[in-house]
Amino acid sequence: MTAPAEEATRTTAAPTRAKAIRLGPRSVAALALVSVIGVAAFGWPFLAPPSSALNAHAQDAPWLFAGLLVLLVAVVAATISESGLGPKAVAMLGVLAATGAALRPIGAGTAGIEPMFFLMVLSGRVLGPGFGFTLGSLTMFASALLTGGVGPWMPFQMLAMGWFTMGAGLLPGPDRLRGRGEIGLLAGYGFLAAFAYGTIMNLAGWPFMGALASGIAFDPHAAVSANLARFVAYCTATSLGWDMGRALVTVVLTLALGPAVLKALRRATRRAAFETAVTFDPR
Questions:
Q1: Among 148, 65, 66, CA closest to 101
Q2: DSSP codes, 28-40
Q3: How far is residue 52's CA from residue 88's CA, in Å, rounded to a whole number?
Q4: What does the CA dihedral 255, 259, 264, 269 come to, rounded to 10 degrees?
Q5: Do residues 199 and 192 touch, judged by C-beta distance below 8 A?
Q6: Taking 80 as the threshold, does the pLDDT of residue 102 lie above it?
Q7: C-alpha pair distances (Å), 214 with each of 18, 43, 54, 132, 209
Q8: What are the beta bridge partners of residue 278?
Q9: pLDDT value for 118
Q10: Mean pLDDT across the stretch 197-225?
Q11: Residue range 137-145: mean pLDDT, rounded
Q12: Greater confidence, 91 or 201?
């Protein structure tokens, strides 16, 4: 009988936090590029002076940006995937994206009840910012196909949700903070990010209003301060209640289900061991 010391022993490292995607320099650069273009795509009404050629084509600019964002998000996803998106990570990504897409229609059209947001927060927290951006973008793409919500707004939704989920992965204390402190942090982030998501998405449709509501519509000839006041009035009149519903649902679900979901996600990533290198000790 061979002594245990003489047998080849299979050992694995036990990481405190398994990341599905490692952000290398190329991935960081791609994320930075798409974020800069995304800021321009959302905020061009405030960035372009009244005399600019962009304002002269105010009705066309969001459509052009939408087409550009599709390409940029695809580039970012491809770049991140080259950083280490293995088969196990792809499987996890597919399961979470499908779950999020299935959750989104549950409260469609009902006072901002969108349970998918809390899942995106928790997933981004456990799996990191790179995985979070990819997951958020893919979930919005899948849900658009599921609900028939494909249109020029979809790339903006993909980018905004990518930011939303990535932000959860950038929160402090990923390896140390646990328990009530972590749940409180995630609930607070989800509350603020739900409002931020709604406000950002308003920028995707607001420039299209034209003369439909002259008091709060975008005016390409007005000063930045005047358009900012119009935009605040637009958000207050159209989406404040919806955003509040989304934020409250995210907080309630995070407080109620957060500990169990976080535990399940962490257990799944440990078992998948996305980053664990398998080695064999010499005889």
A1: 148
A2: HHHHHHHHHHHHH
A3: 49
A4: 100
A5: no
A6: yes
A7: 52, 20, 20, 39, 8
A8: 12
A9: 92
A10: 77
A11: 85
A12: 201
For 95-147, the DSSP string reads HHHHHHHHHGGGGTTSTT--THHHHHHHHHHHHHHHHHHHHHHHHHHHHHHHH
**What is the rounded end-to-end Cα distance, in angstroms, of the chain?**
15
Amino acid identity at 89: A
Question: Which of 52-66, 100-114, 153-167, 181-195 is the most confident on average?
Answer: 181-195
pLDDT digits (tens, 9 = 90+) for 226-264: 888 888 888 888 888 888 988 999 999 999 999 999 999
- Which tokens sit at 45? 């009404």
DSSP 50: T
Q: Judge contact between 144 and 193, C-beta under 8 A.
A: no
CB 278 within 8 A of CB 12: yes
- pLDDT at residue 215, rounded to an integer: 76
What distance lies between CA 52 and its chain's CA centroid? 32
What CA–CA distance (Å, rounded) separates 265 from 53? 49
**pLDDT of the residue at 213:** 57
Which amino acid belongs to residue 200? I
Question: What count of residues does the chain have?
Answer: 283
279: phi then psi, degrees, rounded to nearest 5:
-130, 160
Angle subtended at Cα 31 by Cα 26 and Cα 34, rounded to the nearest 5 degrees: 125
Kindly tell me if the per-residue pLDDT of 283 is higher than 60: no
Measured between alpha carbons, how far is 31 from 170 in angstroms, rounded to an integer? 13
Q: Look at 99 and 279; give whichever has higher pLDDT.
A: 99
Beta carbons within 10 angstroms of residue 254's beta carbon: 26
- Give which of 32, 42, 24, 268 is closest to 153, Cα–Cα: 42
